[in-house]
Amino acid sequence: MPSYYDIDTILAEEELIQIRPSFPFSHLSHLDPESSNRKRRRVDKENVGNSRTSIRGGGHVLEEGTKIKMPMWAVDRWVVLGFVRVTLPGIYGSKMKERLLADPVSVDLGSKNSHYFLTGLLLTSLLQRASQIAKRHRSRSASSPASQLSNLAQSLQLSLLTTMMGERLRRNFDWTLSALDAMEDDASGHVEKLSFLEKRMFERGVESSGAVVRWRDGGCGRIGGKGVMKGMAA
Amino acid sequence: MNYGTKARDLLLELKSSDFLPTYNEEAVRASLAEITHHTDELTDLVRAANRQQSDAAEGTNTSSSSQPQIPIESRPSMLLHDASIRRNKRCLLAYHAYRIDKLRNLRWETAGTLPAHIQPLLSEAEIDFFRAYDNLVTSTSLYGLSDYNSDMTPPTENFVMVRVVEGGLGKIETEMCGVVELEVGTMHYLPRGDVEGLLRRGALVQLSGEEC
């Protein structure tokens, strides 16, 4: 797994995930933008004098099943412990998968999420951890959240692998061969659509292409001893 | 939800800068204040939950020796505060680690001289770190282990062809070539060890065989 200090990993965890609580959450009604409107309507209806409403367990409650979006890092423990039900973000959903299958090269991953693959990797890891924990508690529950989470993780993993190692990778490598010749081909249009990982692969590919060209221009020669070594031997 | 946004913005500043952005003390303080706020909230929640359980245990006359269980409805908020504390901490550590790594590399590139255009970007602590790191490397060199400032890249030749690009260098005294006048635009074939420092500073530019 990436380093604790890796900035790209930290930023990749900012991706918003849609979740729904499996039971009421105390003290967290502020996470739902609509909750303050519901509270006001309830206060007017009940003609209560003060502004505090629906106190249960000592705080404002986020109701069960409320749809909210939160960063991946914030809901990590909730997902692993089974406190919430998870819906994959749109960029990893079925519509996006269909678009990537139909024409993977034309999809602009750079604008949708620059850390598309890294976020997907972290999300897969999260779902797998949650599935393993849910498997240990399977005797307590009639439904099988473990299998749902496991299927979700596998499906996401397959989608990421297919996207990364398919036509997009081939096209990326093709562009690295011609990127050095700015007069012939302008790679900027291609690079704009790339995710962060693909851009780094592109840059490494261009460096490699340049190294091959320099090596070819250098021609053949005899390996000799450098002046420094000769001076040391004397 | 705006937890961890200041800390995240610090990292985005790093990503968008060429070398280092100016040290953002305000955002660092705001992140530390957020950590304190979440710690206080978490402490209050735990106390309230324990108090609630104790009251419930007294009411039903159950034994007080057993560990009170925190109600499940209260746990998600505690976990969220804990996650926010860890998140802010991680972002702050990553921010400072990135800057420190840059300064360490800068020391090797400049042989201990802090460039004038870099100094305004640093905090007082970072400037102190740079100097302390430079002193550490220098003192290690003085113990005779190795002269770390001598070569930027593995040496291949004893002599190098250089062109003078900075004025006001005057004359230098070399071991093998005697006194050499370094006027702007002139080229010289000099011992590598005698001009390494000027090359590192950018006062001289090393020429390859094709440029001579």
Q: Which percent range describes the beta-strand content of chain B?
A: 5-15%
Give the strand content of chain A: 5-15%
Radius of gyration of chain A: 26 Å
Q: Average pLDDT across residues of chain A?
A: 80
Please tag this protein with its features.
heterodimer; A: 234 residues; 3-stranded antiparallel beta sheet; 8% strand; elongated; B: mainly alpha; Methane Monooxygenase Hydroxylase, Chain G, domain 1; Ribosomal Protein L9, domain 1; 2 domains; 5 strands; rod-shaped; GINS_Psf3 (chain A); GINS_bundle-like_dom_sf (chain A); DNA replication complex GINS protein PSF3 (chain A)
Written overview of the protein:
The complex is a heterodimer of chains A (234) and B (212). In chain A, α8 packs across α10. A three-stranded antiparallel β-sheet of chain A has the order 4-1-5. With 234 residues, chain A is mostly helical. Helices cover 55% and strands 8% of the residues of chain A. Chain B is mainly α and 212 residues long. Chain B folds into two domains: 5-150, Up-down Bundle (Methane Monooxygenase Hydroxylase, Chain G, domain 1); 159-211, 3-Layer(aba) Sandwich (Ribosomal Protein L9, domain 1), CATH 3.40.5. Helix content of chain B is 53%, strand content 10%. Chain B has five helices and five strands, in the order ααααββββαβ. Chain B has helices spanning 5-16, 25-59, 75-110, 124-142, 192-201, and strands at 159-164, 171-174, 178-181, 187-191, 204-206. In chain B, a hairpin with a 3-residue loop joins β2 and β3 (178-181). The termini of chain B are far apart. At the A-B interface, α1, β2, α3 and α11 of A face α1, α2 and α3 of B.
